[in-house]
Design brief:
By secondary structure, this protein is an alpha/beta fold. The protein is built from 23 helices and 30 strands.
Length: about 700
């Protein structure tokens, strides 16, 4: 059972009129589902309730149609009609005794209103501040607007209470909520009683909290979520301003919830931010108020959580990503199963679901957002349909996930790996600069597999089709991965182009295998996720001079969706990489390469002693093709199915696609053929007359 040193994490904590059963506080987080997928988001939170969280929050909830952040999909509480989906959510959160929190947001200058077409409002007349630089400005709010804003908040408090929510949180962090805009001297340049001094800039904040207290404070707790620092230098709402504010209004809310200034800074990836990275900014705030304090920091270490509580830094362990990667994190600590925790790797693939308006997925927890859509669960699997043996070939993230999940289902599983170490790309990539946390994908799964008597792992076992036919498995799951292409083919060049035969050409596989290019190395990045930038860092460490050429307007463009792009480009520029954006590599040889501007076609030459191609990947599908070619021999070999999964089926630069493929293989095995039916449930809007 529970280790005594973690008892402190399970102490009940009073929040206003309510008591949280422990210190585990799932702070609001997006999920790409929001109002489009209300049952999916409710079920996702129910699983967290089962996993033992004391407090569980919704994502951002737009309280009024005059401020919304289309195209991003969050929740909407605009009318009474919206209440039923909130009831569903609150009920799901309450299912195992968690308090239900709702994060109420009026985005103001962060809401372009592309859907409602209302004119946005802000403290002053100014352009909308979003990721997308929409051609929209907000008008300055007058006194009547402020009265309306307070009224709309009151409606939201009442609706949220009617839906069954316990904690009302006013959102003023990450630059996404109107109270932060009023608090910021950079944005709030008003000259009336709502602008100027901190007391004035905090007036709206104080009024909205007081209104919440009057409306619902008898039964609900009131929380505020504020930025630790706006990250805008001394012109912004600084950490010192926050300390002044907390001291000034120490008793106003029932709980203070602190997050970092920009979302990028708050939700930094493990490549750029350590666990508990915000500790210095939050330390001392608790001493300014008698009310409990929530802090975040991608916490997955129970000892670190205990230290922060014991040192009086925080009262609640705020967690978004750790609760996504492992919804059962509190229960596992409680039950003394620390080694079973599926630690977040800090990759931010979950955030890409929101940024792309898709639906979130998690590298570590493939059931995330599939709890309702597919009935998946992070801890449990259906029992196997029949006693059958499954051979999984390849132990990368796809093969490891398949073997682990098949093991949970009770199949007899053999996992064969050609190399002396398991983990495939995860093992190799975790040795690259900044990616060590990615090894957790392997370590969690291997840790679980090693406890299973029905899963055997065979290393140094490169299997041929004949080996597989002789193995005696009913199902063969081919997870043999992919290799980086050596011909420059990807998105810009759909066919190979001119590379001189005597020019040293490398791929990321070569460098991960120990190859050491020398001299001036040109990276051609037509993959656009993390690998190009990571390769540049590695080459610098090897002492090379590095040019990074990409047809995109940005380095590692897709990493905008993981909130890393700015950090990556800054790091490369500051470390002396010759960054050439909007350039395609046309030919290379004789110590030089020809680049072409992707807009004008104008050509230029740069020095190039060696080429590193970060382009597309080819599936390693020889085994599956060889097996398919011998399908006539399957019956005698006892084989019923052969299926390629993960990178061996269709490579993805993101590991999450592989872990998902492995999980899905295990879920779908022995299921009846769905025919034309969809593989997941979805919600359809009710038609109005
Ligand atoms: P994925 O992301 O799809 O899991 P990886 O490239 O990470 O793919 O992993 C594939 C793994 O499969 C590698 O560890 C590789 O060594 C292994 N592998 C490839 N071919 C064979 C084979 N014929 N027999 C056993 N293992 C193989
Ligand atoms: Fe953590 Fe990555 Fe999962 Fe997000 S997707 S919760 S960052 S492991």
């Amino acid at each position: 059972m529970r280790d005594k040193r973690y008892d402190i994490l399970f102490e009940p904590v009073k929040i206003g009129p309510l008591t949280a059963k422990n210190r585990f506080y799932q702070v609001p987080h997006c999920n790409g589902g929001g109002y489009r997928d209300p049952s999916a988001v409710a079920e996702m939170r129910r699983v967290k309730s089962e996993g033992g969280w004391g407090v569980i929050f919704t994502e951002q909830v737009e309280i009024h149609h005059t401020s919304e952040i289309t195209p991003f999909i969050e929740l909407r509480l605009w009318e009474d009609k919206d209440i039923p989906s909130f009831v569903k959510m609150a009920d799901a959160i309450h299912a195992h005794g968690a308090l239900a929190g709702v994060e109420l947001a009026y985005p103001g200058v962060n809401g372009p209103n592309l859907y409602s077409r209302e004119v946005p409002m802000a403290p002053v007349n100014m352009p909308i501040l979003t990721f997308t630089s929409d051609p929209v400005q907000a008008r300055a709010m007058d006194k009547e607007d402020i009265r309306n804003l307070r009224h709309w908040h009151k409606l939201a408090y009442r609706r949220a209470k009617a839906a069954g929510f316990d904690i009302m949180c006013l959102y003023g962090a990450h630059g996404f909520g109107v109270i932060q805009h009023f608090l910021s001297p950079r944005i709030n340049q008003r000259t009336d009683e709502y602008g100027g001094s901190l007391k004035n800039r905090a007036r709206l904040f104080a009024e909205l909290v007081a209104d919440a207290r009057d409306e619902v404070g008898d039964t609900c707790a009131i929380s505020v979520r504020l930025s630790l620092d706006e990250m805008a230098g001394i012109d912004g709402f600084t950490n010192d301003h926050l300390r002044e504010l907390v001291a000034m209004h120490a008793e106003l809310p029932d709980v203070w919830d602190f997050a970092h200034g920009t979302w990028e800074a708050c939700s930094g990836t493990s490549r750029f931010k350590e666990e508990a990275a915000q500790e210095d900014l939050i330390r001392g705030l608790k001493q300014l108020t008698p009310k409990p304090v929530v802090g975040v920091g991608r916490f997955t270490s129970a000892d670190l959580m205990v230290r922060q509580v014991k040192q009086g830094i925080i009262d609640f362990i705020g967690a978004a990503r750790p609760s996504i990667a492992d919804p059962f994190l509190p229960r596992k600590i409680d039950e003394g199963r620390i080694e079973d925790i599926r630690e977040c790797i800090g990759c931010n693939i979950c955030i890409t679901g929101d940024m792309t308006m898709g639906i979130s997925r998690c590298t570590q927890n493939s059931s995330f957002m599939e709890e309702w859509r597919k009935g998946w669960h992070p801890e449990r699997m259906r029992k196997k349909a029949a006693a059958k043996r499954v051979l999984v070939v390849g132990s990368g993230p796809a093969g490891l996930s398949a073997a682990h999940r098949l093991g949970l289902r009770g199949y007899e599983v053999a996992l064969a790996e050609a190399r002396t170490e398991v983990g495939g790309r995860v093992t190799l990539e975790s040795r690259l600069p900044g990616l060590s946390a990615w090894a957790r994908v392997r370590d969690y799964r291997m840790g679980q597999i090693q406890k299973m008597s029905n899963v055997e792992v065979y290393k140094d076992s490169a299997l041929t089709a004949e080996d597989v036919l002789g193995f005696g498995a009913a199902h063969v799951c081919v997870a043999t991965g992919a290799t980086w292409r050596r011909d420059g083919t990807a998105r810009f060049h759909l066919k190979p182009f001119a590379i001189a035969a005597d020019l040293p050409v490398f791929t990321p596989d070569d460098l991960m295998g120990g190859a050491k290019p020398a001299g001036q190395v040109l990276i051609f990045d037509d993959d656009h996720y993390y690998m190009g930038g990571v390769m540049a860092e590695l080459l610098l460490k090897l002492g090379c001079k590095v040019s990074l050429v990409t047809p995109s307007t940005k380095v590692s463009e897709w990493s905008t969706n993981t909130l890393e792009q700015g950090f990556i480009q800054k790091r490369l520029l500051e470390s002396g990489v010759d960054v050439r954006v909007t350039r395609a590599l046309m030919s290379a040889g004789n110590g030089a390469a020809t680049l072409s501007c992707t807009y004008t076609g104008r050509e230029e030459e740069i020095a190039c002693d060696a080429l590193l191609l970060v382009t597309a990947r080819n599936p390693v599908d020889g085994l599956v093709h060889a097996l398919n070619a011998q399908s006539a021999a399957w019956a005698d070999a006892g084989i019923e199915t052969v299926k390629a999964i993960g990178d061996a089926e269709a490579p993805s630069s993101a590991i999450a696609w592989s872990t998902y493929a492995g999980h899905r293989y295990a879920e779908d095995l022995d299921e009846p053929d769905p025919g034309d039916a969809m593989s997941f449930r979805r919600e359809i809007a009710e038609l109005q007359s």
